[in-house]
Every structure is written in structure tokens, then in C-alpha cells.
């Protein structure tokens, strides 16, 4: 099996000020290409720590990918460490990257400073893949410890992601990966342990080369990933169909997806539209809808009615409904959904009103949300109560609202 | 220096399906307590990989914290590996965690299944810290390899975060950390390399025990972190003041913060309010505002006007303004900002209209955004053009809009 290690370099990760998303993005691409990621490691901007990690990973994996430490500022030392580590006698200027440095800075209307020009200097033993998104070159060092290849990528997330296709191309030109097939289904509305009990007989009967993983995530529910090592696609698909059959309406997508993308797909297929009225979710539902490319085809708009006056004046929720039932109520959720549907003329609408913080309002405990969905078949509401912090409650409210909307569109409620 | 390693366990991280946020959260807490994080490593759910990583990290660090692999499902094997690794002869039932398993499942209205009860079984050599947020216990193994302590935390992010205070308390009862002081300032509106050139003379003259790190992030601009190793707080603060003086209006906060929190703080101090009208940012600005606890004091609401009819009907943007100038224009941004301010009665308002995707609309290239801010001193607009993918463009649009609003409130534009 062809193995790779990913090594992120930077103090900012080790002290927890920045979350490392590069490793995940690189890992996803490697796995899809059939390359097994053996480990990921993060170390700080120190010569000893970087060399120690490189030794450890180059001994164990044929491919090591580093990100970070290539910036122009004084705290970035990866290039110097790699120069030494690769036995480079000196530096050379890379004409391709030099041209790109000029082009990028010109495009941003900035002067080219000496600190920028230094970015095009690379250790003599490095091959260069030009980085079109930033000034730091992507460097390739071959035959380290006599056997392994190291790719040094910039740490800036969109530059690291942008470097992946060229790095993969180089890997596939030099190595031969094995075959792993992964398939995902997305499930919402059941706890992990209950789900596990439900499918235990099926899971126990899986062939030895197949493996099921549970990947819970607030926003997407649970992703079930079925993997086949060296097996054929047909048997994998057959097992997947059996699993989907068992889970019924809990399944909202047959591939790696999100609730907002799944709902969007449904709406697009039907040529229908949606709008949202948000109180406690404060724009999160609109943000989720519009994070999907092409969402302007079905998402008309939304109103975030944080203040009561906005609920009354913009959404037309009658003051008496709020007075009689309280802001966090089935009646207000329904009136908000109906109001925004009227306002935008959408086929469906979804609304939330609740308490995202831990504190209750005297009538409802913190973490309570009323969700309303309105459409051609009338209005439905549902109440959930979660016990998390503000950020997580907002995420769960939004996910539950999208799932409730999905069930309505699918004619299940 | 007291050193720690963090080890996350789980196939889902190695294949890039889940981003590891636990390591960052744990690292942040350790650093604040003066414990240096030496490295972070992620390995899969395999006995060999876990044992290899534990050996490597326990040799190098006095403290190793693992997360993950403690779930009730078949793919989770961390507990079995730790039982063997610690030389435990068998398992015992932990009464505290058993009680918690019953309590948690009862609270969720679920039956207690055998698979849940097994969660309260721990290796004989493990001490237990009860996990109040989930069924998997937090386990402590002392004197591994004769010298180091291992804390095994659950992988579910909010459970891992919830475990940190108790783990820190245990660490501080058994170890004595050194002193590191960090201070942050937040900067928006200048590229990293230009910033570096601007402050180079000051940075070069820093005492040897102080270190500056650049932590760029789309949403927050650049975080500058000044660290002092074993030094006094007073000299650190003096250096920080000098740095802030140099950077002027680029600085939007004097602590680790975000643009939305900084704007919220300004509004709260002044007893003023804000609303938003969003087209291309699709709810992101509202989401950022409302992600701050207590934001209902100043954030009245917003309209996401994705469809042109919503811009006209809800925000009152005259059809002729759209026809004459196009949707992506200074005039429409201004009319949207004025419309939502009129609708909500807020002190200020902010509006965006632009193209988040890479494709242009014939008149404007993809990545173009017009931002409008309206308030007691009239309306201002500004245009930016970014060259990123959809998700990143939306983030930058929202951050630029918040910064433009900040400059208006601070009377700088």
C-alpha cells in the first residue's frame, strides 16, 4: 500500500490559534487517489521539531507532504530547514516563480519588495511547481533518506488547496497507488448508538474487506462511510443499497453531502423555491442555503428578525400572536414562515424562533427552538430542545430546520 | 519546559472527512496554562498506528492527550489499545460513569442498550474523570513508559472541549508549568508582506525573549501575536503599545477578537444599533453578528435579498435604480443599505451586492462586491474585487463589509 504522511508546520497551529484545515483537504485528495494517509503531524516553527518530524515520517512513508512555514516573514523557517535537510549546497532563483511573484503583486496593486523577491529563491536540490495563487513556490525534494519524496506546500489554506492537483499529478507520475473505494450516505434524525444497534446484524455480516465508519457532525447529522479495500464496486453498491433500505426516511443523501445541498437538489429538480425567516438562527439558514453554488435558482431570500419590531413590521406577525403566545412559540414560528412566504412568493418557507443561549426566558429553557415550515399543503411546526452552548445550538437549530423542511418537501410530514 | 503532545485517533480525520478541531481547542487551553505543545499527531483506528504514535509521543512529552476512538461502535478501538499498552489485567466498571450513562440516555428519552453500558467499563489501570456530556469516560493513565501521563478524551468535539477544565485541573495538581505570556492585536486592511515591511525596524529591535507571529485569517484579517518567554508583563505591554501606535486605524481590537465582536463592542458602548441587507453574502453578515452572545442588544435584523423582487419589494430599491446601474453597483448597495435602515429603524446599516462565484455578469468580473454603509452622517459605498472561490469570496465580502462599517462608526470615512 502506498503511504503518505502530512506534516503541518507553524506555531499558530500548536498554540491553537489556527485550525488546520490543510491536512484534511490534502488527505481527502490522497485517499480518493488510493493513497493511504498513515499519519498527520503538526509541529512548531523550530528547526529541531521540524527535522525530528521529517525523519520520523520519511522513515515510515514514501510520500511526505508539508504545509506552512514558507511565508516571507522572519518566523517562517521551513525553507531553510529543507535546504539543510536535503543537503542543498545553496539557493537558486526559480524564474517561473519569480515571474509569478511579479504578476501577483502587480495584480494586487502592490510594490515588489525585496522580501517578496526572496520568495523565488529555492534550495538547489528542490524542483519547483509554480504556485499561481501566492508568492511561495511549491517545492519537491526527491530521494530523501534515499527513498522518499517530500512536497513542501504553502500554509495559506487556499494556496495549499490550489497546489493539490499539481502535486497529485506528480505523485501519480512517480508512484503506483492501490485501490480503496469509499461510498457515503447521509443520515439525520437518530443518535449514533441507536443507529449502530439498528444496523448491527447487517454490519456484522459485512465481508472482511469492507468496513463501515460512523462520522457524526452536528450540521450534517451522521455520515456513514462504507469502504472496500481492493474489492469491486458492484458488491459495495449492493451493500449500500441494503443499508439505505433499512434506514428509510433517515437517509437524506446517497453521497457525501449536506442538508442544504440535499434540499437544494430537491428544489432544483422540482423547479420550486424557498425563503427563510430567522430569529434565533440569525442568518445561519440563509448562509447555509447560499453557500451552495447555483442556489440563486431556488433561494429567493430571507429575513433575520432579531428584534420584535422586525417580526411585526417586516414579516407581518400580528402583535397579538406574540403577546398571547410569547416570541418562542408554535404560533410565532408558523406566522413567521407564512409571513416570509407571502413576502417573497416562494413555494416553501422555513422559520425559526428560539433561545440560542443557555439561559431560558422564564417560559422556555435555553436551547429551545420552534421551527415552522409553510408550503402548498399548509403549515407545520415542531419543537426541539438542545442543551449546548450558543454556537452549537445555532448549528443544531439550523440543521433541524433544514431537515424538517426536507421532510415536508418529500411529503413525509 | 513542561511539554505536551496531542494525539487524535480516527480514520475519519486521516481520510479528511472530518476536520480536527479538538487539537486546537486543547492546545489553546494548554498554552494558556503555560504548557508547551510540542506536537500534534493524527492516526487511524489501527492498533499498530496508535501504539507507534503513543510510544513516540510518550518518549518526548510528559503529558500526552488523546482524543477519539472511545465511541460505542465497532470501529473504535482506543480503549482496548490503552488497556494493553498500560498493562491492565482486565476491565472494571466505573460507577460514576455508569450513573452518567443512565442519566444521559434517560435525558434524551432513549433506552439503555448493552452497547451503552459497555461504555462504563474501563481498563483496570485507568483512573476515571466522569464525562458529563457523553457516555465515554475520560481516562487517566499514569507512569506510562515509567514517566509520562496520558489523558484519553472522547473525540466528539463538544465532549472533548467539555473535558478540558477537569484535565487541566489534574495536570496542575501533578505538574508545574513555566510561564509564557501571549498578547494579540487584530489588524484588517493590509497584506502580510507589506505589514511585515512596515514594522520591520520595531520587530528587529525586540528583546530576545519576545517573539512576534503573523496569523492571517480571511475573516479576522491578521492576528499579530506577541509572546514573552519567562519575561514580565509590563515590558510586553509596552512593546504592544508601540506596535499599536505604528499601525493606527488598521488595528480593530487589542485582544484576540473578530470583526463582528469588535463592531458589536463599539455599538454596545454607544447604545446604537445596526441592521444588514445582504445579497451576495447571503446571510453571512447576519450570522456573524448573531454568533456573538448578547448581540440582540444592537443587531435588529437583516434581509437577505437574493432575488431582485425581494430587493424591490422588501427593501424598496427602486426598479429604475437597478435597471440603470445594474444589480452590482454603488447605487444599489446604497439603496439597499438605506432601505434596511428605514425598515428596521437602526442607527447604522450595512449592505452587500456582488458576484460570489468566479463568473462575471458581463459588466463586472466574478469576485466583485459593492458595499454600502448608511448612518446618521449619510451613506458611503466602496467596491472590492477578490479572486477566490465562492466560499472564500463570501467570507472576504462579509469581513470587508464589517470593516467598512467599523471605519464609518469610528468616524474615519
Description:
Two copies of one chain form a homodimer. Chain A is an alpha/beta fold and 413 residues long. Chain A has three domains: 3-174, MoaB/Mog-like domain (Molybdenum Cofactor Biosythetic Enzyme, Chain A), CATH 3.40.980.10; 180-253, Alpha-Beta Plaits, CATH 3.30.70.2860; 259-409, Alpha-Beta Complex (Maf protein). Chain A has 15 helices and 17 strands. In chain A, the strands form four sheets. Chain A has a six-stranded mixed sheet, with helices on both faces. Chain A has a five-stranded mixed sheet with strand order 14-13-15-16-17, sandwiched between helices. A four-stranded antiparallel sheet of chain A has the order 10-11-9-12, with helices on both faces. In chain A, β13, α11 and β14 (299-305) form a beta-alpha-beta unit. In chain A, α2 runs parallel beside α7 and α10 packs parallel to α15 (390-409). The radius of gyration of chain A is 26 Å and the shape is globular. The mean pLDDT of chain A is 92. At the A-B interface, α1, α2, β2, α3 and α8 of A face α1, α2, β2, α3 and α8 of B.
Total of DSSP H or I helical runs spanning 4+ residues of chain A: 15
Shape of chain A: globular
Report low-confidence residues of chain A grouped into runs of 5 or more: none
How many whole angstroms does the radius of gyration of chain A measure?
A: 26 Å
Number of strands of chain A: 17
Most residues in contact: chain pair: A-B, 104 and 104 residues
Average pLDDT score of chain A: 92
Please give the domain count of chain A: 3
Q: Which superfamily, in CATH terms, is the homologous superfamily of the largest domain in chain A?
A: MoaB/Mog-like domain
* Quaternary organization: homodimer
Through-space gap between termini of chain A: 48 Å
Predict the CATH topology of the largest domain in chain A: Molybdenum Cofactor Biosythetic Enzyme, Chain A
Report the top-level CATH class of the largest domain in chain A. Answer: Alpha Beta
Biggest β-sheet of chain A: count, sense, barrel?
6 strands, mixed
Q: Which strand order do you get reading across the main beta sheet of chain A?
A: 2-1-3-8-7-6
**Strand-pairing-aware structural class of chain A:** alpha/beta
Beta content of chain A: 25-35%
| Percent range of helical residues of chain A | 40-55%
